[in-house]
């Protein structure tokens, strides 16, 4: 093995460990050896790098065998045909799928359960393109040959089937861009639990308006306000649905 190849390998391994340290608080106080030994997201990317190199060299079968073994070990499936830039980090990682024609830029972070998948049975480019500095939350599904712009954030469990503008934050099913207090959600540490959902806000607003109109109609007609009716005044008996 040539010295240049060893240097490139060492640089690649060091880069992935650095990415893990920069984006996973659990690495605090953990040695590099521990990260390399126990972080499945790092394992998966290193296995991908090996499979990808063999794939580009035209080696038959072996890249897919290595990819399969990596999936069995980590629960993360990355096709060797995918194109992935530097600083890629998968946090936790179980259930992550990256399809054959997916393209991922530099310094991208994805969490467990994320799918970069295709739609239908069309040939050619059929998986997403994710540009630099994108963060994709747990369980998000990005489907088809869409483009996720630079610096975008995809909320947990979002289903994204259309292009995402740069530096925007997308939530919901289907995914749609949102803002907080009139501004795009910025920074790598967005509050993934409390991201706004304008569709849900609109439903709540309409529900409140309907109740207000019902009260006005009840006042004009002299009937009881349906919003104040007690539909089930007696407490129910039996086991709680929560298991109590």
Explain how this protein is built.
- This protein has five helices and 16 strands.
- It is of the alpha/beta class.
- The chain has two domains: 3-196, Hexapeptide repeat proteins (UDP N-Acetylglucosamine Acyltransferase, domain 1); 197-232.
- The model is unreliable at 240-244 (pLDDT under 50).
Question: What would you say about this model in short?
Answer:
The protein folds into two domains: 3-196, Hexapeptide repeat proteins (UDP N-Acetylglucosamine Acyltransferase, domain 1, 3 Solenoid), CATH 2.160.10.10; 197-232. The protein is built from five helices and 16 strands. The chain has helices at 3-23, 32-38, 40-56, 62-74, 198-221; strands at 77-78, 83-84, 89-91, 97-98, 103-104, 109-111, 115-117, 129-130, 135-136, 141-143, 147-148, 153-154, 159-160, 169-171, 176-180, 183-184.
Topology, pairings included?
Elements: H1 3-23, H2 32-38, H3 40-56, H4 62-74, E1 77-78, E2 83-84, E3 89-91, E4 97-98, E5 103-104, E6 109-111, E7 115-117, E8 129-130, E9 135-136, E10 141-143, E11 147-148, E12 153-154, E13 159-160, E14 169-171, E15 176-180, E16 183-184, H5 198-221
Parallel strand pairs: 1-4, 2-5, 3-6, 4-7, 5-8, 6-9, 7-10, 8-11, 9-12, 10-13, 12-14
Antiparallel strand pairs: 14-15, 15-16
Proper CATH architecture of the largest domain: 3 Solenoid
CATH superfamily placement of the largest domain: Hexapeptide repeat proteins
Based on secondary structure, the structural category is: alpha/beta
CATH T-level topology of the largest domain: UDP N-Acetylglucosamine Acyltransferase, domain 1
DSSP summary, beta strand count: 16
Proportion in β-strands: 15-25%
Through-space gap between termini: 64 Å
Number of domain units: 2
DSSP summary: helix tally = 5
CATH class of the largest domain: Mainly Beta
Please provide the ordered H/E string of secondary-structure elements: HHHHEEEEEEEEEEEEEEEEH
Spatial arrangement of strands, main beta sheet: 3-6-9-12-14-15-16
Q: Could you tell me the radius of gyration in angstroms? A: 24 Å
The helix content, as a percent range, equals 25-40%
Low-confidence stretches: 240-244
* Average of the residue pLDDT scores: 84
State the shape: elongated
- Describe the sheet with the most strands: 7 strands, mixed
């Amino acid at each position: 093995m040539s010295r240049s190849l060893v240097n490139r390998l060492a640089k690649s391994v060091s880069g992935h460990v650095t990415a893990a340290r920069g984006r996973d608080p659990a690495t605090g106080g953990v040695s590099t050896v521990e990260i390399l030994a126990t972080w499945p997201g790092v394992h998966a990317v290193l296995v991908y790098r090996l499979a990808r190199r063999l794939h580009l060299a035209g080696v038959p079968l072996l890249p897919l065998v290595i990819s399969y073994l990596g999936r069995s070990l980590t629960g993360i499936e990355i096709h060797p045909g995918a194109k992935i830039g530097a600083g890629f980090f998968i946090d936790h990682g179980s259930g992550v799928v990256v399809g054959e024609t997916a393209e991922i830029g530099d310094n991208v972070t994805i969490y467990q359960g994320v799918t970069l998948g295709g739609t239908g049975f069309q040939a050619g480019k059929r998986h997403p393109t994710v540009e630099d500095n994108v963060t994709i939350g747990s369980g998000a599904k990005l489907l088809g040959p869409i483009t996720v712009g630079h610096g975008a954030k995809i909320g947990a469990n979002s289903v994204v089937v259309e292009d995402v503008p740069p530096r925007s934050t997308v939530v919901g099913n289907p995914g749609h861009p949102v803002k907080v207090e009139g501004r795009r959600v910025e920074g790598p540490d967005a509050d993934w639990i409390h991201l706004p959902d304008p569709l849900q806000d609109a439903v709540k607003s309409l529900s409140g308006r309907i109740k207000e109109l019902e009260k006005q109609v009840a006042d004009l007609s002299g009937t009881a306000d349906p919003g104040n009716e007690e539909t089930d005044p007696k407490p129910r008996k039996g086991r709680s649905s929560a298991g109590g």
